[in-house]
Amino acid sequence: MAVGNAVIDLFSTIVQIDGTTIGGISDDGIPFPAGSSKIRDVSTQDSGIYTEKRLGRYDAGNVALKGNYIPADAGQIALAAAANDRAVHGFTIDTRAYGGNVVTFDGLVTKFQPGNNSNTETFNATIECTGNIVISSTYIQPSALSFTASGTLTPAFGAAVTNYVNVQAGGAASATVTVTVAAPSTSLIYLMTNTGTCLSTSAGYGAWVKLTSASPSGNISRTAVSTVTTGAIKIIDTATTSTKVATYINFSLVWCST
Fold it and tell me: What Rg value do the Cα atoms of the chain yield, rounded?
């Protein structure tokens, strides 16, 4: 049988860490997870001379990610930072440009190091996957998203919008964000910012902070007037049978004096 157009090309595949696209990935550097279930020996005296087995926990394994090193690339910067913060990060592989799906998983970046290929500086990273892997073409989408009333949201809210700018006028010293997810009921919402009271005191981005649907977050504090606070919102489905991939929404809070 001829293959025809049934194959999925991986040209223009998008790989993201916490919603930030990682640039410069090589053709053979896309980090598809390839895990497997462990095997349990459940043999007893009643098993006779034969070993009886059952499936144990599924281990998503680890993946390698590589490409050309781009010092100013936001995704590579985030990947390098993740190798030092010892935190769990969310990864997305989007192959829909040529009819594929979206793969999402959480992982720990255990290595990010420079390399060389034909006199071109490269990078190599290793991600230890944790939890389950979701493969789907359907995202979990919020039903509402808003910042403190004094802020102006651009663009206007849309379920499929993944990048916002919010201008906080009048010298506001802090802001909150409210995210509502109507379904599925097993969804969880998390917030991460690069400054303010909603994060750990580590350099760069802090840890994910859990939010309650339809309830304001804690205060996100400005560092000074005329500065910008960046952040991300992650929405995941915790159901083991989930058919929806995680959504990452990036935002910038612009602090104005008037």
Answer: 21
